[in-house]
Structure to design on (340 residues):
């Protein structure tokens, strides 16, 4: 989730068209949710701390939220949604937030030093990467770049476990191909101590993502955009995407994400908990979910990655439906017995 300032007072002079275009594109995505949840563009550009706390914690069923910063300092003077902005707000609400930070390999030694400072100051256990972000004439980077490997090695040294990578729908004016998932495949094999959570599951490259994630044990599916962008507006496609994810990746490697403030969590949580596969002959070969499946996806899987303590009464007593990688490895019985 995010706490951004994309109002005109934060636009970089000379880059106003990009700052304006970016947030208007984000706002258009909100239109894929139920009409009653749509905001005005003015509200969407800069919502308050009170708005966030009410939408997420009072109404949205959230116990602990994970901030995912996105800087975009070529267009926003103070950054769009920085680690510092998130943390300063979160410090007023102890225990409610986890502060992930970020890095950009094009920032060289100075970026590595800043990463160290952020981890020390904010206790970050994860990083959010925006591989299509513009930087001094460059329009993106790949995790396979030698410079990116320096940062991944530094993450291991610093105790960072979780690398969240935006790989999904593009936002104007960023380039769609800069979000290709192939570099995650390569990096995940070389850095098996790190977890790679592919936010937005690589959409529209869902099959590329699934076939990659099923053979990389440390690659996870981040469902932000999948639920918010498809469940209401494209229910048939949503069922297909969920079916592919459940079959190939498996419910143990799928994580709910609201992508707040693009979408409020309340309708997403309620809708997903009640959701079942439609009665459609083309969907009958997909695995079905049960209550245990949804508990994992809605929180238990993320709690495991971030060492968040879950009260005993909310833990699972049985397994659920394994992914294809577990079936192929002959592990479903072990999986069910472990309660993992």
């Amino acid at each position: 989730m995010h706490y951004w300032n994309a109002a005109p007072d934060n636009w970089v002079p000379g880059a106003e068209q990009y700052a304006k275009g970016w947030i208007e594109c984000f706002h258009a995505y909100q239109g894929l949710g139920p009409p009653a949840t749509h905001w005005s563009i003015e509200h969407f550009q800069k919502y308050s701390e009170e708005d966030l706390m009410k939408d997420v914690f009072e109404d949205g069923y959230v116990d602990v939220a994970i901030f995912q910063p996105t800087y975009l300092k070529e267009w926003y003077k103070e950054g769009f949604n920085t680690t510092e902005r998130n943390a300063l707000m979160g410090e007023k609400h102890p225990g409610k937030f986890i502060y992930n930070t970020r890095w950009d390999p094009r920032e060289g030694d100075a970026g590595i030093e800043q990463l160290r400072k952020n981890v020390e100051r904010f206790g970050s256990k994860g990083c959010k990467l925006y591989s299509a972000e513009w930087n001094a004439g460059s329009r993106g980077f790949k995790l396979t770049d030698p410079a990116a490997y320096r940062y991944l090695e530094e993450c291991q040294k610093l105790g960072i476990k979780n690398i969240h990578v935006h790989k999904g729908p593009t936002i104007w004016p960023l380039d769609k191909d800069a979000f290709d998932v192939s570099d995650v495949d390569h990096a995940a094999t070389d850095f098996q101590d790190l977890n790679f959570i592919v936010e937005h599951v690589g959409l529209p490259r869902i099959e590329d993502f699934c076939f990659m994630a099923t053979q990389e044990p440390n690659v996870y599916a981040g469902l932000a955009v999948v639920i918010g962008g498809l469940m209401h507006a494209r229910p048939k496609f949503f069922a297909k995407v969920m079916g592919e994810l459940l079959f190939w990746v498996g419910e143990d490697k799928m994580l709910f994400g609201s992508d707040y403030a693009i979408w409020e969590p309340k309708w997403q949580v309620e809708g997903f908990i009640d959701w079942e596969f439609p009665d459609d002959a083309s969907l009958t070969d997909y695995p079905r979910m049960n209550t245990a499946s949804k508990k994992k996806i809605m929180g238990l899987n993320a709690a495991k990655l971030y060492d968040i303590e879950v009260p005993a009464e909310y833990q699972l007593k049985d397994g659920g439906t394994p992914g294809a990688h577990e079936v192929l490895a002959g592990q479903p019985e072990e999986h069910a017995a472990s309660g993992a």
The beta strands are 65-67, 97-99, 101-102, 126-129, 162-166, 195-199, 219-222, 254-255. The radius of gyration is 19 Å. The first strand starts at residue 65 and ends at 67.
